[in-house]
Amino acid sequence: MLTSRISSLPLKSILPCSHLLSPLRIPTRSLNVAIIGSGPSGGYALKYLLSSPLNSSNNLRINVFDKCHTPWGLLRSGVAPDHQDVKNASNDFEAAFEREEVKFYGGVEIGKTLKLHHLTSTHKIIILSHGCSTSNFPSLTSSPSPSNVIHSKNIVDWYNGVPGVIGPILNSKNGVLKVTIIGGGNVTLDISRILLKSVLKCPSLEESDIVERAFERLRREVGRVEVRVLNRRGGMQTAFTIKEFRDLTKMTGEDMGINIKKEDIEKSMNEESLTELDKSRPLKRLWKLLSSVSSSPTTGTIANLSIEYFLNPYGYTVDPSTNTVTSVKCRVTELEGEPFKQKPKDTDVEVDVETDLVVWSTGYKGEAIEGLERYFDNGVYRCEGGRVGVEGGCRLYACGWIRRGAVGIVGTNIQDARETVRRVVEDFEGGEGEGGGEGGGVEEVMREEGVEWVDWEGWKRIDEVERRRERKRVDEQIREKIVDVDEMMKIGKYL
Ligand code: NAP
């Protein structure tokens, strides 16, 4: 099944930079590279390292560490279950993991399970590609956080089967769930689509790899869903993209409606926003679609999505008996500032949005690996073209979200990884690759430290079990993910 696709590609077509074909000063001893994170950015870094001149002799060793027991990062745990075409990007990396010079260490969290110095002493190069896995949102209450307020990460982790995630409380009333999602990016559209598809009983969700624990609860507890997406700015500042929104508009019909207020569209067209519109082709296309949806709003019998603008949440109405939010208090905003830098400014007008569940879908933040805090600012590693610094003689590089922030689609990582690998190669070309850990030994260190892990063969066993498991819903269901770490270790532990 796993063919060696990378090795069959012409070298020049996958090299980060063709001029780098010139001879390099390749170290004669083993060159150990650690990649932290096996999501799309780590995957592309691995792919380009293997096809770089660093791999022209037989001494390159690449160890890929992931805190999860399974590979693929956001491809497995972030991308929506009904977007299998995007998830399939992992096919591109499988061949790389089959190579002898590549090792996978799943369930090994660098900074926690294994300390940074264990890695710097056994590797010459570390590529930090561990993504942005924390979330940040204002509490809006002085009391403990109400139980029905969550971050998007919680619900996304839940339906994607991240071990240990219990998922949100669905406080539906008579089977109707009112969900308020704050922030209007693509993650918001993913969550909305999964909720809507669930009540619409869409085959594409049944066939997907949404985990049964989430699917079953949504089906059992929610009969109808009303999703309201609150944007603090106007329509021209919408963060989601046209493709994702168009997919939702195609779902409308008797049972599902989408609504955008005409007043919001009109208010969005201030002079500064029209300048933004004039300068952006993607925005023009999106704007046309948003305007057309607003001129023919629809109401569905069981599922409704409403995209609302100029609403800035500032507080909650809380039912003290249950510590749950019953409405989100918002102030109506206006925009101020230059084109492309417009900010929301609160007015005195207030709006209450009744709700059963509040989801803050306001983006993700990164965290430094323990010991690398001094290279870190505002949720990303400070770096120049991917170079971060030198730690214990080991050169550090970064790519993906942890380098540029939580923006961009899977494909954005291609450019990012190519540039980072180009820097790695340039540094070796310049003789800066000397020093650092001579390597070998990381497995010995892990054994000494009592660390257990899932290796590539172990992951393949897990993968097979997930694909072969009894289908819970329909024959077409892609897999039923294992959501228990002990079970994963039982199947996949390196022996
Ligand atoms: P995002 O695109 O950055 O959107 C965040 C949203 O939250 C924006 O609407 C932002 O509004 C709003 N927001 C931020 N802070 C806020 C606050 N304090 N109060 C109210 N609203 C606030 O984030 P995301 O949706 O998490 O996506 C992350 C990245 O992954 C994006 O680049 C996205 O395109 C990508 N992604 C792509 C896909 C896909 O291609 N299918 C799927 C999922 C994610 P302001 O603009 O006003 O700050």
UniProtKB/TrEMBL annotation:
It catalyses: 2 reduced [adrenodoxin] + NADP(+) + H(+) = 2 oxidized [adrenodoxin] + NADPH. Its main location: mitochondrion. GO terms for molecular function: oxidoreductase activity. Keywords: FAD, Flavoprotein, Mitochondrion, NADP, Oxidoreductase. Belongs to the ferredoxin--NADP reductase type 1 family. It comes from Triparma verrucosa. NADP(+) binds at R232, R233, E244, G408. It comes from the Eukaryota. FAD binds at S41, L74, I110, W401. GO terms for cellular component: mitochondrion. Its EC number is 1.18.1.6. It is found in: Mitochondrion. Its cofactor is FAD. This is NADPH:adrenodoxin oxidoreductase, mitochondrial.
